[in-house]
């Protein structure tokens, strides 16, 4: 990438304004920079009060101006010291560069991730917070976590104490806490697994009963339709039907019971 001197940058931003912010005209005349870079230079120059070029860097590879650095660091400190939030809001820089700027301009203010807090330390922090010895923010800052994390620890710890207390109450009433299997029994003493097996058995029985009902309905319809074809005499038997009669019967059953004729041909 071609490096532009401070004088070249200053000339570029002045031409940019003279040409009514026509980036293409400036680039065609000077041969540099890109449109994005030109807009960035112009913004920094305007924010600096259209100075003599000091806000445009020295052309030795410095990509961001001092004003941009300060703006990024200020945003980082004022918005929860979250690098990702600052980068999303400003569009620059990368996390490593932002960390370097914070250490340079505001030493000791950068949030450094620590190892996970163990259970004993969490409990000690909750006790300190709950007793009023410190606010959630103060306790969290000592451990490198946010105030919300400390409050969340407190809620979880209190919920755990309530469960232990409930189990203790069950024991005080003359019995031991219910086991998992006991909790899965109904008032009749049936286990959950036993009730599931009973349910599955009933479902299978219903399926068989429905199948038998369907078969009976088809058989009754065969007898009724055969009588229509052969009359009501003694010879009105499905076995006495001709091939043409059997075909009529199968088509009739298929239409009435919504089944495929080929499924009936082998049965009747």
From TrEMBL:
It comes from the Bacteria. Residues 160-203 are annotated as: Disordered. InterPro entries: Homeodomain-like_sf (IPR009057). Residues 160-202 have a biased composition (Basic and acidic residues). This is Integrase. It comes from Bifidobacterium pseudolongum subsp. globosum.
């Amino acid at each position: 990438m071609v490096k532009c001197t401070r004088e070249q940058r200053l000339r570029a931003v002045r031409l940019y304004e003279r040409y009514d912010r026509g980036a293409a005209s400036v680039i065609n005349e000077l041969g540099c920079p890109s449109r994005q870079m030109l807009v960035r230079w112009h913004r920094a120059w305007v924010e600096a009060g259209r100075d003599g070029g000091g806000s445009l860097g020295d052309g030795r590879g410095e990509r961001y101006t001092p004003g941009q650095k300060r703006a990024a660091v200020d945003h980082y400190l004022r918005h929860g010291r979250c690098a990702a939030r600052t980068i999303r809001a400003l569009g620059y820089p990368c996390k490593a560069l932002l960390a370097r700027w914070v250490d340079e301009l505001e030493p000791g203010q950068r949030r450094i991730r620590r190892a996970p807090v163990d259970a004993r330390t969490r409990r000690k922090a909750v006790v300190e917070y709950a007793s009023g010895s410190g606010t959630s923010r103060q306790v969290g800052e000592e451990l490198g976590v946010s105030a919300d994390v400390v409050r969340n620890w407190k809620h979880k710890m209190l919920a755990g104490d309530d469960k232990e207390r409930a189990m203790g109450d069950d024991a005080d009433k003359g019995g031991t806490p219910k086991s998992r299997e006991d909790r899965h029994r109904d008032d009749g003493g049936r286990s959950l697994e036993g009730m599931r097996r009973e349910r599955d058995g009933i479902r299978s029985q219903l399926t068989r009963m429905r199948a038998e009902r369907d078969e009976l309905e088809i058989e009754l319809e065969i007898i009724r339709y055969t009588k229509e074809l052969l009359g009501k005499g003694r010879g009105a038997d499905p076995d006495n039907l001709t091939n043409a009669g059997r075909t009529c019967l199968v088509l009739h059953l298929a239409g009435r019971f919504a089944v495929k004729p080929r499924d009936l041909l082998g049965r009747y």
